Amino acid sequence: MSIVIKAENISKQYRLGSVGSGTVKDDLKRWYYNVRGKEDPFLKIGDSNDRSLKGESDYVWSLKNINFEINQGDSVGIIGRNGAGKSTLLKILSQVTQPTTGKIYTKGRIASLLEVGTGFHPEMTGRENIFLNGAILGMRKHEITRKFDEIVDFSGVERYIDTPVKRYSSGMYVRLAFAVAAHLESEILIVDEVLAVGDAEFQKKCLGKMGDVSKGEGRTVLFVSHNMAAVSTLCSKAMYLKNGLLIKQDTCNKIIDLYINDGNNSGAEVLKDQIVYQQKCPHAYFDAIRIVSDGEISNSVRIDKDVVIEIEYTVTTEGIQLWPSIHLLDSLGTCILATFNSPSSSINFDEYYNKPLSKGKYRTVCKIPANFLNESSYKISAFLVPPVNSEMAMVQEVLSFGVNETGEMTKDYTGVWIGQIRPKLYWETQKI
């Protein structure tokens, strides 16, 4: 695979609060350093791109020392929180703005969809803007004409194609803009958050088209979104940006896990004083919730070991019935397993099931068997469910833990196991 995008020490600095150098003194200082062949002194200062901190400098590094390579046909997700530098990076790749330091190398034509209205002239009709965008990409008129009907059909705005785009709604704008960017023959397609403007049906349609562009046509796709499910579906690789820094570049699932769990509670145990209740119960409260593996409290579990979830709680109402329950969520926040303490959902009989409890402390243990969960990151929500029409104790996503591959497990299989569960099942082959 040939490299189509290469970034070498890309940095972008902005001045806060005003546009331009600011003072004649700054301009003279810059000129003086330049004629002496020295580095611009204002590039040496600047705070990190952390929007939550006030900072001491008028300069900020939106991006700092970014290095990566992207091959032809790769579909790469760029993820990070608001203000991490994702849009700035895409603008540099699209040559909308230039980096302060470093170099960017691209091979082939780039079609960008960075924000609503990118590349469209508001006074021109949809038809005229299609031909304008194609010309900007270096396509001849007959090439654009050949794609025209396909673009209009995909966008779903045929009735308004000869209307100036300034009269389009934001959703119509995005529909036509994406259709143009995806269908005109560029080697690199860059898409920012704009798809969030479209309706659910169109978003699904766009994701399908981007998948076709990357996998079927061999073109490169860079996709920025806060929708981790969409990134996971479309992209095979991902980059995680944080405060203007490239934290890691890896497979999509690993980067999403890193992003989701960054800053989350990563401890293997939370006690009563650490638990923030989202909903309280008048009959009981949590004392502790923990993850145990191989007899030790741990939030890192080998795939061939049981995951033991211990819930300790205090009953405050005499004679109340309670059903401890857990929800297991994947890194995208989707509940993949819900279970509670009952004979119908457990392989062993619990003597306290469906019986009135006296006041006091209890411990309920739930065991997820070894070789059941796939290698990934997971979160736990816990519940104490009383009889109907009574409030339950609930705490959501109170713990995070990871299931890790073991070295010996990779000998008979290469590649990434898909799905969230991967149990050892009974298999038998007979010659018949």
Automatic annotation (TrEMBL):
<keyword id="KW-0067">ATP-binding</keyword>
<feature type="domain" description="ABC transporter">
    <location>
        <begin position="43"/>
        <end position="268"/>
    </location>
</feature>
<dbReference type="Pfam" id="PF00005">
    <property type="entry name" value="ABC_tran"/>
</dbReference>
<dbReference type="InterPro" id="IPR003439">
    <property type="entry name" value="ABC_transporter-like_ATP-bd"/>
</dbReference>
<protein>
    <submittedName>
        <fullName>Polysaccharide ABC transporter ATP-binding protein</fullName>
    </submittedName>
</protein>
<dbReference type="GO" id="GO:0005524">
    <property type="term" value="F:ATP binding"/>
</dbReference>
<dbReference type="InterPro" id="IPR050683">
    <property type="entry name" value="Bact_Polysacc_Export_ATP-bd"/>
</dbReference>
<keyword id="KW-0813">Transport</keyword>
<dbReference type="InterPro" id="IPR015860">
    <property type="entry name" value="ABC_transpr_TagH-like"/>
</dbReference>
<dbReference type="InterPro" id="IPR003593">
    <property type="entry name" value="AAA+_ATPase"/>
</dbReference>
<dbReference type="InterPro" id="IPR027417">
    <property type="entry name" value="P-loop_NTPase"/>
</dbReference>
<comment type="similarity">
    <text>Belongs to the ABC transporter superfamily.</text>
</comment>
<keyword id="KW-0547">Nucleotide-binding</keyword>
